[in-house]
Amino acid sequence: MSDSALQRQCHTVLPGHRARTPAELFAAMAAWCEANGVEHDVYGSGALLQAFEARIAQLLGKEAAVFCISGTMAQVTALRLACEDRARTLAALHPTSHIFVHERSNYQLLGHFKALQAGERHRPWTVADLAAIPDRLGAVGLELPLREIGGQLSSWDELEAIKAHCQARGVHLHMDGARLWEAAAGYARPLHEVAAGFDSVYVSLYKGIGGLGGAMLAGSGEFVARAAEWFRRQGGNVIHRSPYVVAAAMDFEARLAAMPDYLDRTRFLYRELAAHPIIRVNPAAPQVNMLHLHLPVPPERALAIRRELAERHGTWIFNRIAGGVMPGTSYFELYVGDNLLHAPDERVRAALALFAHALATPAREGGP
User: Are the beta carbons of 178 and 203 closer than 8 angstroms?
Assistant: First the structure.
């Protein structure tokens, strides 16, 4: 049985939102389109698309926003244009930036800009990290929150200081806001207040929102228009954006409103994890509805435990797993969404107890 089929059979699933089959998702999209009289856009021109772009721009306090087929395309385009505008090719990024970790050196191989790692890998930026750079920067790319270190945020005072530092030096400040919806709940501030001071903001339409894919880039009207032209030049001019926009828009307001509840549920999970010290948690306390859980077993053992708990107990603990820094260890990201929000407390406690017990039990010869 595939992992996705096995997960669907579980009564208790900890990570993310409920996974819908293509048939379920497409049926929900069709019903929403029928109820709202949706028509396809054509090469980016259409009532639904323009209304959703305007909604994102309004939420972020920006003049305009434009759909992009992927965040990978949106981010490097924004940073390249920012560096070109200032005739400075250097952009500062955190060592765990998505651009370094997941985008296969696109900024470098495609000649977009030059990137400089700034700050320490295992903590968010401070303004001192940027002030220590003697180079004249064209842009700074700041991720809120930092996914690769468990969803950590710069403190609000540091964030405001970073904004002021970039503004004073004429540096374009770009936000990797793939999880901005979650960061706003973590700061307990409205989205436009978090985004204020950023010259451009990328947001995801599928991560916390649960859409099919796609992204938005927001900023000034002139900047967004130029970015849209470059999206077309890079092959992003798909004939219909409507499937991506519908999949995001139909759940957008509900998911946005639920972000504080997801964070509260993450805090509940964190408190329950205290009873199982064999599972180590990063960060020290939740800052958004995301945690990294570090395990004293290698990935292969963790996957065997996951399957055993799913088959025998109907419990699904995590999705992807990665090797830890220390030999024989592993860790996974746990994003708290609708699944954990609606899971009864006692089932969550039971799932954690089963998982901790399995981690502490030596693997049987020839078995899990």
Answer: yes
Rounded Cα gap, residues 59 and 216, in angstroms: 12
Query: Amino acid identity, residue 346?
Result: E
Token look-up 């859980």 returns 293
Going from the C-alpha of 125 to that of each of 117, 158, 189, 306, the distances in angstroms are: 11, 8, 20, 35
Give yes or no for a contact between 92 and 140, defined as CB atoms under 8 angstroms apart. Answer: yes
Q: Which of 118, 114, 203 is nearest to 165 (CA)?
A: 118
Three-class secondary structure of residue 146 per DSSP: strand
284-315 burial: b if 16+ Cβ within 10 Å, else e = eebbbbbbbbbbbbebebbbbbbeebbeebeb
- Residue 63: how many other CB atoms lie within 10 Å: 13
Those residues with Cβ within 8 angstroms of residue 1's Cβ, 6 or more apart along the chain or in another chain: none
**Distance (Å, rounded) from C-alpha 204 to C-alpha 215?**
5
Per-position pLDDT tens, the chain of length 368: 899 899 999 999 999 999 899 999 999 999 999 999 999 999 999 999 999 999 999 999 999 999 999 999 999 999 999 999 999 999 999 999 999 888 888 887 777 789 999 999 999 999 999 999 999 999 999 999 999 999 999 999 999 999 999 999 999 999 999 999 999 999 999 999 999 999 999 999 999 999 999 999 999 999 999 999 999 999 999 999 999 999 999 999 999 999 999 999 999 999 999 999 999 999 999 999 999 999 999 999 999 999 999 999 999 999 999 999 999 999 999 999 999 999 999 999 999 999 999 999 987 754 54
Contacts 24+ apart (CB under 8 A), 252-257: 252/52, 252/55, 252/209, 255/181, 255/208, 255/209, 255/210, 256/181, 256/209
b/e map of 90-111 (b: 16 or more CB within 10 Å)? bbbbbebbbbbeebeeebeeee
End-to-end CA distance of the chain: give it in Å, rounded: 16
- How far apart CA 315 and CA 352 sit, in angstroms, is 10
Residue partners of 267: CB distance under 8 A and separation at least 6: 286
What's the 3-state SS for 304-319?
HHHHHHHHHHCEECCC
User: For tokens 């451009």, what's the residue?
Assistant: 200
